[in-house]
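#struct-help
A.M.: can someone run this one for me? Single chain, 173 residues.
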Amino acid sequence: MPPRRSLAALLLATALAGTVLTGCATGPSPELYQTFGGQPGLTALVDDFMDGMMRNPDLRPYFVNANRAHIKKELVSQFCAALGGPCAYKGMDMKMAHARYGIGDREFNALVEELQRAMDGRHIPYAAQNRFLAMMASFRDDMVHPAPPPRARPPLTLSPDAVAVPETVPGKP
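D.P.: on it. Structure tokens below:
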């Protein structure tokens, strides 16, 4: 793991443990929102983020049949509000939105890495990235869930002799 990825993992672990980050401003602010490029910057970031998730074999299955335009719109709104921009996130609760997908630590970590790649690609300063990741870390427990149990198949209600199976295929000797 490159040193930068290790730092992000450490920041996430620190935020998850509830430890106060020292020597670093925390929380949303209009300045942090502007560091991410305001609304146009967030839209471009989320476009890059979604592209990365679609290329990632651990994440692609979650998005291939999804309404990606809607998800991107919701992410822009959520990121805008989290960063201190002039938005109010009105989307689904994170726990409810992710409960049925069976997202594990592997997928969550892949998601964080894709977000970091997108932020790197947009040249967002590391300090701003780390502030944002620390704020977003609180969603981890709402997103990571064990896979739902498979559905039980109903018992067969037809008796085996109710269906006649021909011994030969018609038209074949």
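A.M.: thanks! The chain is about 55% helix and 0% strand.
D.P.: also worth noting: The chain has a mean pLDDT of 80.
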